[in-house]
Every structure is written in structure tokens, then in C-alpha cells.
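To the wet lab folks,

You asked to see what we're planning to order before we commit. Fair enough. Below is the target structure as C-alpha cells, and below that is the sequence we designed to fit it. If anything looks off to you, flag it before the synthesis order goes out.
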């Protein structure tokens, strides 16, 4: 199971860990027994070590410049980065939406990727029930959000156009970029258009035509070889 915290400075790591510890231990009534990290300065602070000692948390530190000793996390980080980058490129979105892409990647992996040697997702192992995924939508799709203003005006539009960016972790809502407000908002009243843009449709059509040419060419070459 993965969680993500977006921070501006590495000095915020210790506070994030304290919040994370309180969250998961309160949710599962279990204790964190071991913490494995690299030797980054944010993890080796005296107050961080003192906190772990007080709460009986065993510390495991990888050797400097040896990321393979913490391979699980390193591979996970690379997977999340590559998936987020691919989602942004596929949706033709700017890098400023990297937080939303990374958050959606982790949200999806927790609910869709099976654990090794297991037929359950991380979410099912953590929550004890299968995750619903019927509300999943294509990242970066055009969307329309209902305007819930008390007095929008008699002849004003009742919807805002935007970009679908993921799922809220605090409520049953979608996260979308509102073009009019120019900010990311959470909304339940959302209609998402998952149809491909015209350019992508043209690209797919061209790829399909090229594949047909390649298949015909391969078939002709085989026929010629058989005739010989």
C-alpha cells in the first residue's frame, strides 16, 4: 500500500512521518515497527532518531550511494515517476500538473495492481474488501462541472469546462482543473468526455493504415518465397 505526501522542503519530512504514523496506527490499531530509508539528511535528524527511539521503531539505513539496498522503494518511485510522466504526455498536459498525475498513479496502483504471489490488490489487503473501480476515468479527459453558485445569473452558463485530473481522497468526488477559475477543484457533479481528441484519432488511423500496409507487404514476401 502506498501513500504520497507533497512537500516543498525536505525539512517537512519529519512532520509528515509523524502525521502518517498517527494516521495508519489509529486506522489499523497496529504499530509501525521498522522504518527503512536512505541516508538523506531529512531522515537522520537527531529529533527524527529520538522520536523513533521513544516509540520503539527500528531504523534501517541503506549504505550511501547504494539504492539497491532499498530496492522496493526505489523501484516504486521509478514506476510512479514513469507512469505520471506518461499520463501527462498522453494527455498533452503541462508539467505543472505532476502532483495530480503522481497522486492519481498511486491511487490507481493501490486499487488495480495485484501484489506479487497474491490475487489481491494492496487496497483489498489493507481494507479487507475489494476496491470499486467502475468510476475510474481516463486521466486528462475533457470534463464539465456543474456550477453550484447560489445565483449564477439567469442567462449565464450552468457548467464549467475543465480537465479531469484524478480522485479525491477525502470525499466521493473527482479532481478537475477548472478552466474558468484556473485552479484544481473537487466536484461530484462532473461529466467526463473520454473520447479521443481529433489528432489522436488521426494518429490511430494512420497507425492502423501503416499496419495494414506492413501486413500486406509481409504476406506478399511470403507468397514470393513460396513460389520460389
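Sequence we intend to order:
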Amino acid at each position: 500500500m502506498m501513500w504520497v505526501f507533497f512537500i516543498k522542503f525536505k525539512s517537512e519530512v519529519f512532520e509528515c512521518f509523524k502525521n502518517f504514523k498517527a494516521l495508519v496506527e489509529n486506522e489499523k490499531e497496529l504499530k509501525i515497527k521498522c522504518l527503512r530509508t536512505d541516508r538523506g539528511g531529512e531522515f537522520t535528524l537527531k529529533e527524527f532518531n529520538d522520536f523513533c527511539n521513544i516509540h520503539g521503531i527500528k531504523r534501517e539505513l541503506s549504505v550511501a550511494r547504494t539504492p539497491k539496498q532499498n530496492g522496493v522503494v526505489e523501484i516504486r518511485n521509478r514506476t510512479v515517476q514513469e507512469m505520471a510522466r506518461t499520463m501527462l504526455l498522453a494527455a498533452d498536459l503541462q508539467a505543472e500538473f505532476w502532483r495530480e498525475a503522481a497522486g492519481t498513479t498511486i491511487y490507481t496502483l493501490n486499487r488495480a495492481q495485484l501484489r506479487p504471489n497474491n490475487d489481491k490488490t494492496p487496497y483489498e489487503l489493507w481494507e479487507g474488501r475489494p476496491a470499486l473501480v467502475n468510476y475510474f476515468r481516463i486521466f486528462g479527459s475533457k470534463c464539465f462541472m456543474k456550477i453550484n453558485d447560489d445565483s449564477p445569473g439567469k442567462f449565464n452558463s450552468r457548467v464549467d469546462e475543465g480537465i479531469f485530473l484524478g480522485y479525491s481522497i477525502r470525499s466521493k468526488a473527482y479532481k478537475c482543473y477548472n478552466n474558468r477559475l484556473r485552479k484544481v477543484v473537487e466536484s461530484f457533479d462532473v461529466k467526463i468526455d473520454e473520447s479521443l481528441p481529433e489528432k489522436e484519432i488521426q494518429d490511430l488511423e494512420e497507425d492502423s493504415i501503416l499496419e495494414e500496409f506492413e501486413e500486406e507487404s509481409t504476406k506478399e514476401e511470403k507468397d514470393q518465397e513460396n513460389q520460389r
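Structural context that might help your review: Residues 198-227 form the longest helix (30 residues). The chain has a mean pLDDT of 87.

Thanks,
Computational group
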